[in-house]
Amino acid sequence: MNDPVSTGKQWGAQSAGALSRGAGGLSVEGLTVTLGAGGPAVIDAASFAVGPGETLCVVGESGCGKSLTALALMGLLPSPPMRRVAGRALFQGRDLFQLPPAEMRALRGDLIAMIFQEPMTALNPAFTIGDQIAEAARRGGLAPAAANARAREMLGRVGIPDPAARMAAFPHQLSGGMRQRAMIAMALVNDPALVIADEPTTALDVTIQAQVLDLMRALQRESGAALILITHDLGVVAEMASDVAVMYAGRVVEAGPAERVLRDPQHPYTLGLMASTPGLGPAGGRLAAIPGLVPAAEAMPPGCRFAPRCPFAEGACAAAPPPDVEIDGRRVACIRAPLETLAGRAA
């Protein structure tokens, strides 16, 4: 993919030295992760960027590599079998992938935080909510008493009633929505500059989902943090995103300002996702479905990985991976773009 820095998204002027609390945009260039040494690329040259105070939504079906991308950025890839073999992740002028392990460990939960999809598995069932949030605060440098006070403060900020009493609750004693709020409190306790949220509302009902998204948006406005929000829900993208990166089978196939991408999608996969989403698909008609499945890592097709499912595919699509083209301020990896030229036609 094109270097996101060259498209105007560049943050962190310092080129060396310790990372600091403050503006924390992220620029990812050419991230490639393989399944074992010499194995297939499950993340293939992914590039994207997000600036301070902005929200980048990474969207795609299950199995497209969204969560693996987040784990790679956090230094948490399961290795073996996964191996990062290429790419940079520039944060405050330094490459996260080149940091010593001890420095990366210190960074996690402090300047960079992650909100996991299922809090019941991410939270430790043997410790109280208060202990777990306070531990994160202590890792950020606070003394025990100050860390406990900060944990109570954060529980109040995320809307948990009677935070002093909830400090003593174990994860199983909270509802799903309360557990997710506690996870958000833990992620934000040290005022991180970058937050990665992996499907944070998937396990919640619609009402609680809306409350959690409103909470994340409000806390982001207060802190000015950069937010990477991983989701398969284009409705969430429409509500939250300033920018969007659409992933398919480990590749970013379309990336740009969310308003432009959702108004006029230029990759057939983005178009298919929108056509299958209530409220974004054709008004008054049946929702469309994308035929087939995301290919397994061991069975990636040659050329464009979406070609076997694409209604516009032609022979050249299988010959080589498509280059990025710039269309209306966004990057699109499709040799058939712009799609307006294909109206009414399918190969």
From TrEMBL:
One of its GO terms (cellular component) is plasma membrane. It is found in: Cell inner membrane. Keywords: ATP-binding, Cell membrane, Membrane, Nucleotide-binding, Transport. GO terms for molecular function: ATP binding; ATP hydrolysis activity. It comes from the Bacteria. Residues 26-274 form the ABC transporter domain. Belongs to the ABC transporter superfamily. This is Oligopeptide/dipeptide ABC transporter, ATP-binding protein, C-terminal domain-containing protein.
